[in-house]
Amino acid sequence: MLEILPAKIENSELLLKLIKELAVFENFPYEISVTKTDIENNLFKSNPDAEAIICYVNKEACGFAVFYYTFSTATGRRGLHLDDLYIRPEFQGQGIGKKVLRYLSRLAVEQHCARFEWWALKTNDPAIKFYQKIGAKKLDELCVFRMEEGDISELASKSI
Questions:
Q1: CATH 3.40.630.30 given to domain 2-157
Q2: How far apart are CA 148 and CA 157, in angstroms?
Q3: Which stretches make up the N-acetyltransferase domain (predicted)?
């Protein structure tokens, strides 16, 4: 029996463990520096930066998702951004990922979101195929840009 429950602060250690499992599973190309304190301070404060859900099958944690709201000037409405979705390998192929996306889609509808978006590593072919199978569209016209802490500080310190 699958349960999808909002994460609570007492789940911080479990979330950290699942995030690290995801990084190993995806052979994530970037350093994972998140700590339990980061999770507690950012997901469970009075005005959280993001939210998390944890999936359980027969009371055993089988996965998680972290998401947050965005805003689009093009639509004039908020959107829901899925930052991470991970289902442990031994639970994959049981429809759990699809149920999580359905759960989040319903949340997006309740919150009047114009968009529900996420990223996938270009090397994650199984995820890309899965997302396309459920009707998600790959956006070739967009490029994702990123600045890390050092780059942010350098740009911030330059005179205008």
A1: yes
A2: 14
A3: 2-160
